[in-house]
Amino acid sequence: MSKNTTYTVTVTQDKARDRLDRFLAGAVPPLSRSRLKGLIELGQVTRDGATVTEAAAKVKVGEVYGVFVPAAVLAVPRPQAIPLNVVYEDDDLIIIDKSPGMVVHPATGHPDGTLVNALLAHCGSSLSGIGGVTRPGIVHRLDKGTSGLMVAAKNDIAHRHLAAQLEERKLERRYKALVWGRLRPGQGKVEGPIGRSPANRKKMAVVKKGGKPALTRYRVLASVGTAASLVECRLATGRTHQIRVHMASLGHPIVGDPLYGGGARRRVKDAPETVRLKLSAFDHQALHAFLIGFTHLSSGVFIRFKSELPNDFNELIYNLEKL
After folding, report:
1. Is 97 designated active site?
2. Tens digit of pLDDT for each residue in 185-194?
3. Which of 143, 156, 283, 312 is catalytic?
4. Contact status, residue 16 vs residue 22, Cβ threshold 8 Å
């Protein structure tokens, strides 16, 4: 079993005025910047003996920082033999094509039956522990209703390698979304900070204050009937509900989105009853992570994986083409 570890580092002249999390990431190579940021926020970092909790604080020459890393604990979630669509797997990582409706990690209201439970059963003790007690191996996530490709790490070195690419925006992620309306122009970008909606704490929104920078690039792939468009979205950042919020902010929410897709009934009120019934039966956002790409730890080669649209997504397109 691993033990508690403490690192002690001193700020040198060439590192003065660096952000604390950036300085520590360079000074403590075993830990990623995101992991260090989490430790800072948990009060596990000290400056000259006093606890510091601001990751963006600027460091000064001569300051001595202590980083306390608690011993790794066994993941609380229990392994569950849940079927997985494994696209690729080796000693470092596993690529999953997640079905819509599967929750990624245990949380309030979803204590089990998640992707993490399935990965624990499939990968056993090889799954990386860096993701934390409730989400071992998880480098990034997809919302419950979003389908498509995810990568999970099977050891801590691979996890740090993938997390660094995610943080440096080198991990490529592309999505296909079915949105209401016709986008004009046919390609562009949405750039707006995302934070908790002041009107509804269960929703995210493009906000004026307190949000995190977010950038989504999009291009229209095809018109779908007269009421919708098939769009490719590329993430430059990875905020909660980012594509869903950004598309809704343009006035083109994702079809089927239970949080941000308001006005669906109005849009299909003149459709044949059979079509309306099909659309109402589609109970999640029409958003699919169809491509993921990254540099592999062992080979150093940039690799990409692609996924076809799920059957229910294609059926939705078929029905919308009738409008």
Report:
1. no
2. 999 999 999 9
3. 143
4. no
